[in-house]
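Ticket #4471: structure output looks truncated?

Reporter: J.K.
Steps to reproduce: submitted the chain below (358 residues) through the standard prediction queue, then opened the result file.
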Amino acid sequence: MHSSVDYLDFSQLSDIDVQMWTRFQNADPALASPYFSHAYAKAVDSVRPGVKVLRFHENGRIAAYWPIRKGPLGTARPIAGSMDDLHGIIAHPKAVLDLKHTIVRRHLGGYAFSALPYQQARHGLRGQYGDGNQVMDLSSGFTAWQEARSQESSNFRREWRKAQKLLEHEAVDIRFDVVDAKSFDRMIELKREAYAKAGHFDLFRLGWPRALLLELMKYDDGNARGVLSTLSIAGEISAIAYCMRSTRVLHYWFPAYEAKFAKQKPGLALLFALAEWADRENITELHLGLGDTQYKRQLASWMMPVRGGTLALAPGQKVATKFAQWSARIEGQNRILDLPAKYTRKYERMALSGSLRA
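Returned output as attached by the reporter:
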């Protein structure tokens, strides 16, 4: 079998490439998320230029697209860094790629990833650790999902009753898929406050993440589009959720709520309402993202396995990967031995964000 690889700027892709990219995405259920769409990559490249694409050919026919962003020392990473809750190669589910191809190794020293569909192990992207994308299954409708989760969990039934009581209150107003600059800005403020309180790096210090969310809200594309929704109580915004949708997947991306309404759980109520809205929009999956938090366990119908780790192609990346694995193993033994892991995470944040401030 003859294989070849093109290394391209994202802007060099043709209309034929867009069609083939979309065809591959549609053929693989593991790639249903809008994160894997050409439209999402286009939005990222427009606000943070520098997206590269490895285009694979087998026997003269296009076989796959691998969108990446080159980082320090030649290691590639997801195109929007830590904004990418999911990422990976867009290929037909039966395609098996040679990621150690001469052209790949010429341009990449390695690939660091955190949430790759586990099916991409067939390409050699097995990773060193696992996680899962929590999925609410709406394929049989909102009512069927709600009844199935109620049968599984008494905690779910309790949360559902609370949410239902709030949603049915006459003082509550919900707006889906709105253009509301004030609510958008407040959502960003609330997320930044939450990052600071938790001691996490503030993505929105960088500027381009906010620009990406705004760019996606401008899109009228069935493959990736930003969706802002709000829940108000007595005329006052109490919960806001920024999601990204494709034709059949809604990704729950940036939720926020006002602390003064915390006891009423408006954020959870808005999520229930979004699920019902998604069903009306013929969306079959609502993705809650990675993590084993309580509300995700209660609401998710199943978990989509993903893998994280590094594909090391060059000697430098192989050494760096072994160092990272070693630092993770020794972390927690004492304060001095914690330093390698601490600085490894700092380096990775800087590489993902493209900023020394990370």
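Triage note (M.O.): checked the attachment and the full token line is present. The chain has three domains: 3-131+310-322, 134-304, 323-352.
Status: closed, working as intended.
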